[in-house]
Design a protein that fits this description.
The structure is a single chain. The protein is of the alpha/beta class. The protein contains ten helices and eleven strands. A hairpin with a 2-residue loop joins strand 1 and strand 2. Helix 1 packs across helix 4 and helix 6 crosses helix 10. The radius of gyration is 23 Å and the shape is globular.
Length: 294
């Protein structure tokens, strides 16, 4: 049976995070030779080379990336086990209350407009929980990839028929948000304006709607994020089709026009691992997210 001890897992993660054996040794308080010996032993037992070694440092191989995702998730479960056991063993009113860091990955509009209220309610009820939020672009593997790689306990993700919850994760829909036409306030012919878009805006499950709109031209302007799009629309530079979360707190310089019952929509939800889904802190956050979304 192939087994790696937590110490060996920490060495692998440190090498990946620092990009080299010497840097990992400094972080861990070990010698470089001890780090190298540990990695070689892990590679021997796993039967694969985990790092490409070079003058510029060490980078994970494809096999190493898989090993690191498991290592991060295993180490996180050990941390959660420790905090929950301590909470269960505590005395008095604080017994059983979750405590410690809660790592969250969210895309920009969700972090701005969905998470704050949920985190406010969460920390009010459970002051021992310390949320750590990372903003992640919802492209490619997005927030779900952060959870799969063990970098986040829970991700706020866009979910849809062609971007469902990955099979290794569990999750659920929180908000079904519609898209609307956004244009400069008072413009007499907003559909004649250039289209402004950004990479995260529309994934494949809304493409059919976009393709069927003869009035909607190809985007001639690509912005970095939804905040930039709103700013450009507000200055009269163009129009945009944007989801509701991105329009919370839109400035008075823009006007929002409903696209009707056939408008495209997208589902925003949460994803986590099956193991962490039963942890106290993750369960508490999911309850608060559902409460504000409902």
């Amino acid at each position: 049976m192939t087994e790696l001890a937590p110490r060996e897992l920490r060495v692998l993660v440190a090498v990946a995070d620092t990009g080299g054996f010497s840097a990992a040794a400094a972080v861990l308080g070990m010698t470089q030779s001890a780090v190298s010996h540990s990695v070689r032993g892990s590679e021997r037992r796993l039967g694969a080379v985990l790092f490409d070694r070079g003058r510029s440092g060490a980078s994970p191989t494809p096999a190493g990336a898989v090993a690191l995702a498991h290592a991060r998730r295993a180490l996180r479960l050990l941390e959660v086990m420790g905090s929950e056991v301590r909470a269960a063993a505590g005395a008095g009113a604080g017994a059983g209350v979750p405590a410690g860091p809660l790592r969250i990955a969210a895309f920009r509009s969700a972090a701005l407009h969905l998470l704050p209220r949920a985190l406010g309610r969460l920390t009010e009820r459970h002051p021992g929980i310390v949320p750590e939020v990372r903003i992640v672009r919802e492209v490619g593997r997005g927030t779900a990839g952060e959870v799969l790689d063990g970098r986040a306990d829970l991700g706020i993700a866009t979910l849809g028929t062609t971007s469902p919850v990955p099979p290794e994760l569990v999750g659920g829909v929180l908000v079904e948000e519609g898209y609307a036409l956004v244009h400069p306030a008072g413009h007499p012919a907003p559909r004649s304006l250039p289209l402004i878009d950004w990479t995260e805006n529309c994934t494949s499950y809304t493409r059919d709607w976009w393709a069927g709109q003869e009035w909607l031209p190809p985007a001639t302007v690509r912005a970095e994020d939804d905040g930039t799009v709103l700013s450009m629309v507000g200055t009269g530079f163009g129009m945009a089709v944007m989801p509701e979360l991105s329009l919370v707190g839109a400035p008075p310089s823009v006007e929002i026009t409903d696209l009707g019952p056939d408008r495209p929509t997208r589902s925003v939800g949460y994803v986590t691992t099956p193991e962490l889904a039963s942890s106290l802190a993750v369960r508490a956050l999911i309850r608060e997210l559902r409460a504000i979304a409902g």
